[in-house]
Amino acid sequence: MKISVIVTTSFKHFFFGKQLLFLLIMLHLAVPFIKAQTLSKKLLETNSITSFSELLKRPVNLRPELKNVHPRLFFTAADLPKMRERAKGVDRELWQAVLEDIVTLKRNAPDPKDEDLYKSGLDKRKAGSISQYEFAFQIAQTSFAYAIEKDEKYLEAAKKWTLVACEMPLWGYTYNKPNVDLPPAHLLYAVAFAYDILFDKLSKSERKIIKEKLIKQSHLMYDYFKYKSGKKYTYSQNHTWIPMAGLAIAAYVLVDETEEAKDWAQLSRAVFDRMMLTFGTDGYFYESFHYYGFAFRWTIRYFDAHLQATGENLYLPIKPKFERMKYFAMHSILPDRENVFDFADVGDGALNRNKESKRESLYGEYDILYRFANVYQDAEAQSIADFIRQETTLGTREPMWAFINHDAKLKPAPLAQIPLQVYFDDNDTVFWRSSWNKNATAFAFRAAPPEGHHAAQLAAKVSDWRENTGHAHPDANSFIIYANGKYLTGDTGYLGIKNTDDHNTILVNNRGQAKDGVYEMFKEVPNERLDKIRIAEVWGTPDYFYVRGEAASGYYEDLGLKKFDRHFLYVAPDYFIVWDELETEKPSQFSFLLNADREIKLNGNTADLINETAALRVIRVVPDAAISKVVPQTIQARGLPGSVDKGDAEQRGVQLQTVSTGKETKFEFLHVLLPILTANKTPAPKIERTTNGLKVIWANGDEDLVNLRAGERSIERRRNGELLPKMILQNKK
C-alpha cells in the first residue's frame, strides 16, 4: 500500500500513515524539502542581493564553436541524425503527434493585412482565423519538421509562413502593447527558430528580410524592457518571462550578426537571474495550472537556449525549486482527467465542467516534465509526463517539445510511487486523494499569501521587483472537493474582477479579503499582513486528513477580524467537517459560502449540492439559527487584453449562503459535508453537537465521536457495537 506523506515546516506537523516507517520515509522524502527551505532561508537572511545594474554587466558569451554556425539554438546539425533515428524508432509516437499538429500544408498562410490576425482569442474573429500564438507554433514546428524529415514540402511551407510573419506591420495586438508583450515574444521565438534551422536553405534576400525583421522587433522589445533607474520588473510573472525568453532566443541567433544582440542577451540573463531568486520555493505556481503551462514552458525554452548557447546550466542552481513542480502538475488534475483544481485564473468554472462553454483549451504541457525528467534524470517526472500525455485530455501547444525533451532511456517510476498527499509549504496549499484512479476522491485546501511566503518576505529586499498578483484570488481558507466522479464544490475559474464571495470561504459584514473588487487586488495590501495568512497545522494518512488555516489578516483591517481559523477534517470515505472559529473587535455578521456547479436543494439546515449522479450533502450543525439561501453564482469574467477587468457578468453555477441572524464578536460555523450518490436513499446520519465537537450517528447504529478542540483532537469510532482504537488527530510540538 502506498504510504501517503505530507511534509511540513519545523513549526508544523509531520504525520505518516505507518509510524513504523516514519524515520525511513522522513529521511527519504525530506531531502528536497530541506534543500528548498535552506535556499529560501539563505536568500532571505542575506543582505548581499546583487543590484540589477550589476547583473546587467555580466557578459553573456556565445560558445566559440557555435560562432557562424546554424542551427545552434537548441541543437546543432550533429544532433539531427540521432533525432531522426528517434523519430523512426523509440519516439515514433511522439514524432507522429508533431506531424499531425502541423497545418501549414493544409491551409494558406495568414494574410498579414487581415485585421483578425491582430486580435486575441477573446475577440470575435471570423471562422478559420489564426492567433499569433498558433501562427508562431506552426512556423517553429514546420521548420523543425523539415530538419527531421528533410522533405521539401516542409521547407517551402516554413519559408512561406516565416516570410509572411516578416510582412506584418506589427507583432501583437493593435490595441494593447503592440510589439512588446506576449504575441510578439512568441513570434520572436518562432521566426528566430526558423531562421536558425533554415539558414542554409534561405536565399540572401530571404535571410536579409528575416534578419532585419528580427532586429527590428528585438529592438522594440528591448527598448521597452531595458533597465533605467527606478524601473521595476514583474520577475515572478508570465508577462516578463515570455518576452525575455523570446528576446534571448533572438539574441542567440543573431549575436554574431549584430552588436545589439549582446545587450538583449545580458538583459534577459539578468531578468532570469531575478526570476530564479523570486520564484517560489516549493514547486507550486500561484498564477494557476493554466499559467504554469502557458508561461513556465518559456522559462524552459530560455534555460535550454541559454545552456546551448553559453554552456551555463541554470537548471542546477534552481533544482530545489523546480523538482516538486511535477507534484503540482499531477495533483492539479482532477480524477476525471479532463479538469483541474481551479485555484486562481484558470478556465471558466462550472461553464467548462458542465460543457456549456469553452473560451480556450486546457493544456497539460507535459513537455515541461519531460525536460525535468531528462535534465534531472527524474523517473517520477517521466512517469507524470507519461500519465498526462497518455491518460488525460490535456495536450500540449507544441508537440515537438515533448519529442525533443523526451529521454526514452529513462524508465518511468511506477505510478504508485507518486505520493497521494502533497503539501506545498511556501504557497500553503495541500492536496489529498485516495488513489490515481478515475473513481478517486480528491480535495485541496489553500490558505496563503498570493505569491507565497517566500515572495512576501523577499519583496522588500529587491528594489527592482514589482509583484504582479493579478491572477491570484482572495481564496484564503477555501477548498475544493471532488468525489464520486464529480466536482462537488469549489472555485469559479478565471476572473476579471476578484471577489471573496466567488470562493468557498467566509464574509464578515458581507465583506471579504482586502482589497477585493478589482482585478489586481493585493498590490496595495502590505506583505506583512498577507504573510500571516497560513496553514498552521496539516497532516494526513490514507484514512484521515486534517488542516487548520489562519486567514484573519487577509481581510479588510477596518472589519476588526481578530480570528478566522478554519478546521478542515476528512474521515475517509464518509465525510468532511468544516469548523470555522471567528472573532471580531465589534459585533459583526458572518456569512458561510459554498459553491455548486449545477443546483442546490435546500431543506432547513441541510443542503444538497447536486451535480447529476453525485451530490455533497451539507448539514449545518452550528449555528442552529441562521438564514440559508441559494443564489446564482455570478462573477465578472475577464475582458480583452489591456481591459481584463472590463469583462461581462457571467453565471457560473450557484452558491449556498448561510448568514448569522444576529451580530456577535465570537462566532462559529460547524458543518458536516457528506459526498453521496444521488441514487443512494440511505438516510443521512444524525449529527449532535458536543462540548468539544460532535457525534455522528449513522443509520445502522454506528457512531463517530469527533473531538475538535486543540490539544484534545481525536476520533473514537464504534462499529457493529465495538469501540475501535482512538485516532489522535494531532501531534503536539
Sheet-strand content, in percent, reads 15-25%
Sheet of most strands: 8 strands, antiparallel
* Spatial strand order of the main sheet: 9-10-11-12-19-16-15-14
Distance between the termini: 28 Å
Integer-rounded radius of gyration = 27 Å
Compute the number of structural domains: 3
Which structural category do the helix and sheet elements fall into? alpha+beta
Report on the structure:
The chain is an alpha+beta fold and 733 residues long. The chain has three domains: 5-42 and 418-675, Beta-galactosidase, Chain A, domain 5, CATH 2.70.98.70; 61-278, Chondroitin AC/alginate lyase (Glycosyltransferase); 685-733.
Task: Summarize the entry for a quick read.
This protein is an alpha+beta fold and 733 residues long. It is built from 19 helices and 25 strands.
List keywords for this structure.
Beta-galactosidase, Chain A, domain 5; 32% helix; elongated; Glycosyltransferase; eight-stranded antiparallel β-sheet; six-stranded antiparallel β-sheet; 733 residues; alpha+beta; 22% strand; 25 strands; 19 helices
Topology:
Blueprint: E1 5-6, E2 15-16, H1 22-45, H2 52-55, H3 80-88, H4 92-101, H5 132-149, H6 152-167, H7 182-198, H8 204-225, H9 238-254, H10 260-278, H11 289-310, H12 319-322, H13 325-332, H14 350-353, H15 366-376, H16 379-391, H17 399-405, E3 421-424, E4 429-433, E5 442-446, H18 453-458, E6 478-483, E7 486-489, E8 506-508, H19 527-530, E9 534-540, E10 544-550, E11 561-571, E12 575-588, E13 590-596, E14 599-603, E15 606-611, E16 614-622, E17 626-636, E18 649-660, E19 664-677, E20 686-689, E21 693-697, E22 703-707, E23 714-719, E24 722-723, E25 727-728
Antiparallel strand pairs: 1-2, 3-4, 4-5, 5-6, 6-7, 8-13, 9-10, 10-11, 11-12, 12-19, 13-18, 14-15, 15-16, 16-19, 17-18, 20-21, 21-22, 22-23, 23-24, 23-25
